[in-house]
Amino acid sequence: MKDEPEESDLSSSILEKKDIGKPAIQDFKLYKIRWPIVLFFSSSMIAGGLAQIGLSPIMSIIKEIYGKDGIIISLLVLPFTIFFIPLMYPANYLIEKYGITIPIYIACITLVIGAWIRMLVNTSFYFLLAGQCVMAFGQPFVISSPAKVAGVWFGDKERALATTLGSLAGPFGAVIGYLLPLPLISDSDTDPKSLGRSRMSRYILIQSIIITALTLPVLIFIRNRPPTPPSASAANSIKKKSDGLIKNSFRLLKNLNFLLLMVGFSSVYSIYTTLGAAIGPLTHSFGYNSRDNSLFGSIYIVGGVFGSFAHAIFLDKYSRYKMQFIIIGITNCISFALVIFLISQGSVVLTACLLFIMGFSQLPVIGVAYAFVAEMTYPIDEALSCGMIHLLGSIIATAFAFMATSFIDNNKTNLALYILLGLCVLGLFCKFFIKEILKKKRAGIRGTILSFHFGNTSFPNSYRNTIRSEKVKAEQ
């Protein structure tokens, strides 16, 4: 079976034969509600990012207050990565069979329930851990959905930007998670422990209120898809019958380009996840405190947000997926190496600047990789292809996070950092061998040419010059 759909499949998804020789023209429309949809979806992802990272900068404080060791404390963050491993396929089954609405409901409801379970933390520390696990349980149902939402609601010229908005929502929530503890709890609150427990309860309360407020709107406004598709590729995805998760998974695993992209993505994503799980112990080993952690984490994410939007704008304009993927790999290796060799200087300003550069270099990999894999593996569902690259990233990230925490507890912090740098270099090496095959964009252009040829005038003006030039090329 060919990876690329046949021309007859494309044309049949765009032209429906009502009478012999009289094709009915498929309308492609961009609905204004697409932006509220992606923004409300992103707000729920922000809540998930806050839930995942909100305890990360104060891990050393939690360790002192509740008397738990480093591995147990790291489990307050790692379930968000661990649960993705067994739940990726059930989540994608729901997305493929029922659309995005039901998975988003599951993610949001578990997020709110888990947030409020944590209010019992002063009854037992394990209520805090249980609440984190309940919240983490629902997140696999939406983690790989940004490309799906973008593909269903947005046209070819906006898809990369919409994917970036969704994929950056989690990191943006992480910024809130890093900054929120600053006015509410500090290292001095560990003595006496009763004061620390009181401050911890207050912090969890405020965090839970924010999570609930960010989550509820999407439950009201989310829709599976627009009345009519926004592009030829979206129309074809709706019409085309899926081959099933297992068969499509094997097709992906036989695709060398997909495997190389998966390793390239995982090498960068693993560092982001490991830092989230171990930033407290990591920076503490170099003499930094919890307030420094909040600054470092937020600066890292802010740098990533700037970098991601820069890449998204460039991607929508020029569609140079491989080039941008390689740039991310090179800048990631350089910036991470600088952090390794200079973090021991003890300068908060220097380290913050380096982490801004590292975030600018690393976080764009999420949006670029999601958009790239959706193009490369079309017509396979975006949620499955994005979910599979995220699956490997989650497995590697979990292993490296436990390794890093163990090494840091045994005063081998530099060894953990060097191993992560080696992973970066491996990912960069793989990126050079990826072939840039943009199947989804090609299908969209070809489908659009067909509709334009039969006189469809419903396209946005921004498409018409491109369509006309592509039509001329096709006729030559």
UniProtKB/TrEMBL annotation:
Membrane topology label: Multi-pass membrane protein
Coiled coil: none
Family matches, as InterPro entries: FLVCR1-2_SLC49-like (IPR049680), MFS (IPR011701), MFS_dom (IPR020846), MFS_trans_sf (IPR036259)
Superkingdom of origin: Eukaryota
Pfam families: MFS_1
A GO CC annotation given for this chain: membrane
Primary localization class, coarse: membrane
Transmembrane intervals: 37-59, 71-91, 98-119, 125-147, 159-180, 200-222, 256-275, 295-313, 325-343, 349-372, 384-403, 415-434
GO molecular function, one term: transmembrane transporter activity
Subcellular location: Membrane
Chain ranges of the Major facilitator superfamily (MFS) profile domain: 37-439
Hydrolase is among the record's keywords: no
Swiss-Prot/TrEMBL keywords: Membrane, Transmembrane, Transmembrane helix
UniProt-recorded name of the protein: Major facilitator superfamily (MFS) profile domain-containing protein
Species for this entry: Euplotes crassus
